[in-house]
Specification:
The protein is of the alpha+beta class. It contains four helices and nine strands; from the N terminus they run ββααββββααβββ. The strands form two sheets. The protein has a six-stranded antiparallel beta sheet, with helices on one face. The longest helix is centred in the first third of the chain and has 12 residues. The termini are far apart.
Length: 168
């Protein structure tokens, strides 16, 4: 990784596993997509090319990924419905930094390194923060079942999966 499509216009970094990637691959091959390896990453990449952000509704697995779409000048990322794989990000100076670990962001020359003192008591009580904040100012984690979109220096995020609880 990263992995790009044939013309390099869509590039992905991916952490996790797509359980139904072979089904997706068969469907995409029938639509004319070419596959060069047996990785689930390639099914996700071509799935984004075919269905755009709606690919999320077709995925079963545990994952966090970020896709750069050169044609749309857009960065798009998401986490699985349970949030098993992490995705952290920071918006700074018209740029976005992202990674599966906070230390990767802190290693960047411009990343903030100040403690989020407001949330320290929560972390000391629970040993984690249940929302998007982290112990570092300006560093956020994308919540489970959420997407992140970066375009023109602006970040948007939203929820794509809402669990339904229907007692039987």
């Amino acid at each position: 990784q990263p992995m790009a499509n044939e013309d390099g216009s869509v590039v992905i970094v991916f952490n996790g596993e797509i359980y139904n990637f072979q089904e997706l691959r068969s469907e995409l091959e029938a639509k004319g997509y070419k596959f060069h390896c047996g990785a689930d990453t390639e099914s996700l990449l071509h799935g984004y090319e075919e269905w755009g952000e709606a690919v999320l509704d077709r995925l079963r697995g545990m994952y966090a990924f970020v896709i750069w779409d050169k044609k749309k000048n857009k960065l798009f990322g998401a986490r699985d419905i349970f949030g098993i794989k992490p995705l952290y990000y920071a918006v700074e100076g018209g740029r976005i930094l992202f990674g599966s670990e906070i230390k990767g962001l802190l290693a960047h020359l411009h990343a903030r390194r100040s403690l989020n003192e407001r949330r320290l008591a929560h972390w000391l009580c629970m040993e984690y923060l249940p929302d998007e904040e982290t112990l570092f100012e300006g560093v956020r984690k994308l919540s489970a079942g959420h997407w992140l979109r970066w375009r023109n220096g602006r970040a948007e995020r939203g929820r794509w999966f809402v669990p339904r609880f229907a007692p039987d």
